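Lab notebook, entry 192. We have the chain sequence and a SMILES string for zinc ion, and the next step in the workflow is to get a structural model of the bound complex before anyone spends time on docking refinements. Request logged below.

Task: model protein plus zinc ion, output structure tokens.
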Amino acid sequence: MSGGGDFKNKDLHRIRFDRGGNGPYYTRPMASGLSDRIDCSRLADDAALLERHYPLRELPRLQDLLADAHGSVRARFAFARMGDGRIGASIAVQAAPQLICQRCLKGFAFTVAAESEVEFANSEADARADSPREIYLMEDGSVSLRELAEEELLLALPLVAVCSTPPTCGRAPSLEERSRPFAALQDLLKKT
Ligand SMILES: [Zn+2]
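Result returned:
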């Protein structure tokens, strides 16, 4: 795990949480070895803005999708208490993982720059059913920032990773396509 940094004002998220009159709370860059689990309620009361960088190899749920585990994800979290006392965060992730193309099985860089909002809840039953935000479950009021960043990164990746448009993807033609190069044309001629 490597360090983090402070937010600049221009990086503030669009999220319109009620910050309860508190000014933003800027954290110092994280020293390695600090606990990754954070108290959601306390950070929301502080309107905390955090930034973390995680090597992709430290994100276990990502590994099957990666052609190689080089690189890192930059994650920024803006915690806030909403008007009704609930707590949430806006999370922005940036990364360029080397994904495996599902067509040609080669690695390719996929650029991710995504942002979403979550609402924290202690249980599914506790979550507000009509929340417009993704519900993220806490454990005893806390979450792992690394797991939260991993979740947001996974949500931002394509369901089926494909390196580029078909004409330029490095896909090898299948045997059937090689042996019947004019099949489509012949089918068309039969119909006319
Ligand atoms: Zn490909």
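Notes for the group: Helices lie at 40-45, 145-156, 175-179, 183-191. Worth checking against the assay data. The CA atoms of residues 36 and 146 lie 7 Å apart.
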